[in-house]
């Protein structure tokens, strides 16, 4: 009997998944709530030019995903994942509240980035410990977890964005800080449902035995090389994808007609479309992949990711065509909504799939560090997105969107070339894990 079947459950999953889901939801609410306002705050309140604001945005977003590389090591070697989540979340909350002062703007960004370094790799790395190695629910656990991420992302622009636009930027930033505190409260109160952490239970012990049973140093080296290559492809992909909070946000403000009858749609609300569509589309995709898995037809992880990058390229081609054929300022908001629909469908094939791949293939004693390596791709991708965003004014919307389509499409081609190698390392890891469980 699997460990998951013997444990109390909520919604057919271990109770700990709900705790992690809600903790991550509120953390994402705080992060994306602040991010929904950031580029507007810099250009409208701090009076930065577009190029400087895009660069600062990209550097900040990149740093948010760089600090987890160090934070994962600190979590694995010294603090442990539970203490890392609590300390990191507290520092992030302080950073959000520091945004209330314009003079502390850069200090606030630094505090959020540093706290995130401890929080980000330590929370999702606990998901795998909720399941026995052969539990059939493991495959969809990260897609369910990803819904929690996007539920927070949906609420963030609607709450923080609306408060910031209508009542003042600092009200929006304050709401983001409150969201982070709520996430910490959920995590602390629900701690008894989470993996034992540094106490090596049966599932964790199986992971250690599995590490020893893998195909030696050569097999592990091949695994790490493939993961590195996939991470670099995702880094390139994110250079295009991360424009959502940067140049796409600027275009939503000035490049489209936001009229809806007698009302004007707030510019920050468009950033809620992506997480809303993630929540709507995830059950459909999970059911589709489950049927394919039962029939032995489910695509490999790298192939799914290649398809996702191609979908995002199509989304940008759509915007390029619309921008080229429409007078400035006259593009209907419906085209932007259609863009988010296509982009989100592509995103679901690549980002949660990649996170799950890195978590499944991580050595158990370095799980947070390996998950942090996944976020290194987000670091490089956000940095690239900031640099690419500086070309927005010079190129104009149509040419810029065409460039983003080329960037995402290139990542898709490279991921497709990695499909065979990724399939092999996943196939090799599966029997080693099963044998480890049998020995425990």
Stretches where pLDDT is under 50 for at least 5 consecutive residues are 1-5, 198-210, 432-440
Mean pLDDT: 83
Q: What is the fold-level CATH name, i.e. the topology?
A: Growth Hormone, Chain: A
Q: Distance N terminus to C terminus?
A: 13 Å
* CATH-assigned homologous superfamily: MFS general substrate transporter like domains
Rg from C-alpha positions? 21 Å
> What is the CATH class designation?
Mainly Alpha
The count of DSSP E runs of length 2 or more, i.e. the number of strands, is: 6
Please give the largest β-sheet: 2 strands, antiparallel
Domain Major facilitator superfamily (MFS) profile: 16-423
Transmembrane segments: 19-43, 55-75, 82-99, 144-164, 170-190, 224-241, 261-286, 306-327, 333-359, 371-392, 398-418
Protein name: Peptide MFS transporter
Subcellular location: Cell membrane; Membrane
What does this structure look like?
- With 440 residues, this protein is mainly α.
- The chain has a single domain (3-439), classed as MFS general substrate transporter like domains (Growth Hormone, Chain: A, Up-down Bundle), CATH 1.20.1250.20.
- Helices cover 78% and strands 3% of the residues.
- The protein has helices at 3-6, 15-45, 50-79, 81-98, 105-122, 138-167, 169-189, 202-213, 216-241, 247-254, 273-294, 301-324, 333-360, 367-389, 392-395, 397-417, 419-439, and strands at 9-10, 13-14, 256-257, 259-260, 263-264, 331-332.
- The strands form three sheets. The chain has a two-stranded antiparallel ribbon. The chain has a two-stranded parallel sheet with strand order 3-6.
- It is globular.
- The chain starts with a helix and ends with a helix.
- This is Peptide MFS transporter.
- It is a multi-pass membrane protein.
- Keywords: Cell membrane, Membrane, Peptide transport, Protein transport, Transmembrane, Transmembrane helix, Transport.
